[in-house]
Amino acid sequence: MNKLIVVTGGSKGIGRAIAELFAGRGYDAVVCARSVDGIVGERILPFAADLSTREGVNALVGYVKRLNRPVDVLINNTGTFQPGQISNEAEGTFETLMNTNVASAYHLTRGLVGDMIARRAGYIVMMCSTASITAYTNGGSYCISKFALLGMSKVLREELKPHNVRVTAVLPGATLTASWEGTDLPTSRFMQASDVAETVWAACALPPTAVVEEILMRPQLGDI
């Protein structure tokens, strides 16, 4: 039986690159997004859910459990960005970003990690950001949520050490995804989603005696 990876936010960008890379290398990939139209491929198992809601997370957990297969890798990649400052961002921005970027990872991990603990095997990747360590003026609640996600990664790492479940926080800088559509900057100023996917693969491919706790990635020419 093929190994199984669960990727959230997998319809585009980094999530899709990870799902396609792992599927191309022998994994079956559960790919979750609000819309899974166009997500097809050998070994791809699409599932539509809004993970900013508890109901959506519960639906995904239920689907994965009904597969009756161990989850080898969980990629908590669901996220959204809304620019603004704490003093002036729209009412509700904080709740939207915390639910999507943080609560989704919290509840999904809780729903699936029990089986990893029981098997004493599994890998969890938390898709953080350089915004997890560097605040910026127009980051507002986005930065808050990404700082929180990195904190959750650190807590999980400590909690799961005795159970042989590995946790890696990935902190990518500017990556050429749909969020940068319309930019006038040259592609040389960005990483590619495939760069991040290859790095995640390399971390997961390490022997179980080692773990990369944090991966900080930036474009070769530096931050934008």
TrEMBL record:
Iron-sulfur keyword on record: no
Gene3D superfamilies assigned: NAD(P)-binding Rossmann-like Domain (3.40.50.720)
PROSITE patterns in the record: ADH_SHORT (PS00061)
Pfam families named in the record: adh_short (PF00106)
Keywords for this protein: Oxidoreductase
Lineage start: Bacteria, Pseudomonadati, Bacteroidota, Cytophagia, Cytophagales
Protein name: SDR family oxidoreductase
Keyword set includes Oxidoreductase: yes
Family statement: Belongs to the short-chain dehydrogenases/reductases (SDR) family.
Molecular function, one GO term: oxidoreductase activity
